[in-house]
Amino acid sequence: MSEVILEDVSVSFDGVPALRDVSLSVSDGEFFTLVGPSGCGKTTTLRTVAGFEEPDTGTVEIGGVDVAGVPPEDRNVGIVFQNYALFPHMSVRENVAYGLRYRDPPGDVDDDERVDNLLELVDMAGMGERDPEELSGGQQQRIALARALAPGPEVLLLDEPLSALDARLRERLRVVIRDLQQELGITTIYVTHDQAEALAISDRVAVMHDGRVEQIGRPEAIYREPASRFVAEFVGDNNLLEGAVVSTDPPQVRLAGGGDEQATTIAVDSLPSENERVTLSIRPEDVRLGDASAPITLSATVDTVEFLGDAYRVHCRWDDQSVLVKYTGDAAPEGTVTLGIDPETVTVVGGEGS
Length: 354
Ligand code: ATP
Prior knowledge:
Number of domains: 2
Number of helices: 8
Keywords: ATP-binding, Molybdenum, Nucleotide-binding, Transport
Bound molecules: adenosine-5'-triphosphate
Membrane topology: Peripheral membrane protein
CATH architecture of the largest domain: 3-Layer(aba) Sandwich
Subcellular location: Cell membrane
Structural class: alpha+beta
Order of helices and strands: EEEHEEEHHHEHEHEEHHEEEEEEEEEE
Function: Part of the ABC transporter complex WtpABC involved in molybdate/tungstate import. Responsible for energy coupling to the transport system.
Protein name: Molybdate/tungstate import ATP-binding protein WtpC
Helix content: 10-25%
Strand content: 35-45%
């Protein structure tokens, strides 16, 4: 079993906290992603698992073993960084073979055969004699991946491995990485600042903010049930609208402003605080432009329309608040429009100021 467990891990640099009580548990064979804005502590978390940083407090376990004081080379982890860092003076084959030097115990196939297998695994068979400089960025990252996998690590750590590549290649390679991870069943921790990438390829995602974990969950849960205003804003397009508490028992809220209180009352599971004002999260695809028979209807005006190919991204204005709508009709809407909302798609993401 190669689970990775962090319990109450704090790390600081020169007295400035970079990680604050980070706890997370990655299951055997899971693809787990750390996502968040620059500086939130993703890389520090990964480096702490790898053994390049030691926690001030808290524990890190890999495969059931507390790895405090264990140097990186003895942690049985493979690492790929953002800037592929292949050795320029070595051929592709030598780069991958370099990864074998930590293999313990030695494998049952010879190194040449093992390198060939790895090159095939990352779809680079026959490229072994090339120099790294003769490869594209995407190919170099595949080789970096093969090198990290060479010793047969228990855990694979990937720190923004695709961020130096262009958007189309990134989308292609993320699927390659996911397929490879599934094929090998290797426990993987992946770091990215790209929330779409995180949702696309992960079993579970941890959203980080300011050295803390804000929410951990399956991509669907992170997207549909954001636990905080920060997650609701960071992950995907969203509308954060002002709401007011109508009653606490049963918990009910309404969209603040606009009109008839009855018409916008929404029953919710619970309220985040005693605050009278709350923030309501509604995804653009859950706002139905032109649906006058929806339980909640708002009369809005169209500000700007962007054509996306498969839909329009419509920026509307309702009661001085902007409402983003994903609209799949045939023509760009304009003027005054009705926006239909189903209360079940509305999430309360925090009291005022949260
Ligand atoms: P990015 O997406 O920009 O790589 P990140 O989420 O990976 O960001 P970290 O690199 O983990 O964030 O940094 C977390 C915080 O710790 C930041 O405020 C950063 O400036 C600080 N930090 C990281 N490494 C060091 C270091 N070696 N010395 C001092 N401060 C550091």
